[in-house]
Amino acid sequence: MLVPTSGAFSERQADVAERLGKTVDRIDYEWGEAVKPEDIHDALENEEYDAVATVMNETSTGVRNPIEAIGDLLGDYPDTYFVVDAISCLGGDRIDIEGHNIDCIFTSTQKAFAMPPGLAVCTVSEAAYERELETDSASWYGGFRRCLDYYDRKGQTHSTPAIPLMLAYREQMKHMLEEGHEARDRRHREMAEYARGWAREHFDTFPEEGYESQTVTCVENTRDVDVAATVEAVSEEYDMVFSSGYGRLSEASFRIGHMGEHTVESIRALTDAIEDVAGL
Fold first, then answer.
1. Which stretches of the chain drop beneath a pLDDT of 70?
2. Deepest of 147, 165, 176, 259, by most Cβ within 10 A of its Cβ?
């Protein structure tokens, strides 16, 4: 596998693959930088890979990687499958999955789907499904063959599911489809543009310019405010939540999530609260 790493969750993606016994080559970027398609291309020209795995939305840094361009170039490598972690953006950042040669893209319900955690959601291409059929290493719990074939035979999951969450998921799908792909994408884009504008007015944005996330804004703490204390005070005084930076970025940045059921108005209410508490 080829795994470009540019933050905590892409590094975790590589770690997971290694724990599963895969041979992993990494392309390392500084946190805040985006993956460059030309680096993927160069690596593929020098080595044959079974898969390229990439994080679409690096939650730790607020970077939105150019998944479309990476997928397009992988069209020239039909034996290399494209696996995308879209946990913190799918449902809030529209992508043409088939149009950009994505073989497996997965997310969780607690982010842009605006639900409690507990369900994983993924799509798998016919080619990737057929590839799994050729191997003996498919996961017992999460393998595509076991999940899909069991459903085809019995019309149910192979293990007892979180039924209340599945019912909530079905209801939320109705709301998402009623809003529509274009309108939902536009709402998230407007929230992102507002959050980035606010960040640049008072601080700065952490991601490489031009690669900012549509669902989470990572703000560079250029004013050296006490991030942990500000997060706590906003929670106590305004009953709203934002997050300090992730891992080693704990005090160097903070993150504002704008996804799911939020609107520009609710994000503005949060930034007003941050201004008040931090004395901006």
1. 137-138
2. 259
